[in-house]
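#structure-requests
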Amino acid sequence: MTRFSLVLSTVDRTDEVKRFLFSLDFQTHRQFELIVVDQNKDGRLLHILEPYEKKFSILRCASEPGLSRARNVGLEYITGDVVTFPDDDGWYPPDLFEKVANLLDERPELDGITVPIEFRTGQGDEPIAVKGRSVGAARWDKQAGPLNKANIWVRVCSQGLFLRRSVVEKVGGFDETLGVGSRTLWEAGEDIDYPLRAVEAGYEIYYRPDMCVFHPTLPRQDYAALADRAYRYGAGIGRVWRKHNYPLWLVCYYFLRPFGGACLSLALGRMDEARYYLQSLRGRLRGWRSR
């Protein structure tokens, strides 16, 4: 039976981790291990993890700050057949592992699958959130199919990525110069870079929009406060384009989105929103021009 290894990096969250653990306990497929890479400087997670240690396998370890660093530490402990990287504020539908395992069993030629995020308004101890309002689905491709260099941006998020262990062992660790806490300008892109490396190595990863992982509905954007972050995230995206030698026509296509957002915001007199999009565009250009 397929066994899953979950590498969970977490810092500064407790209620969200409780919700995630609660959703794990509802999984209909029970063969999994949870590797918690704890970046808190105290023991706040100990009493949260303790009730679940008798229900399923939990290993807690620590790492230096940084999402990619934490995941690489967690990868040192995996023993399962399929590896995934949940977010510490996300959670799962109860039949997700069962569906993923069945699909990989039925299609042994697939080296992994990806599923989209579905945003939910569920709160507290309602991990399934079946009555929650679903929003934010526009980013995701509606069609199923294999990943490639062009469509990977609308078919992948790290928390919805499930790879066979053989792929992980071949691809190796995450690029620690990318992602939140990387100590570089490139504070995004690690969740695209990793599966893209697998695709470029010849592995077939299939996108299934009929499955999903859950994530809290995003709060209303404060564009003035997020402009600097938009620059750093944009720089990470541009860095991935450069790292993987994206063709100029495709880079120009992806430049159009923030440019169009800035133009529309300016036309509507939304100056903070326009600055946000321009900072994202500026960051993408900075990352793409990097060497």
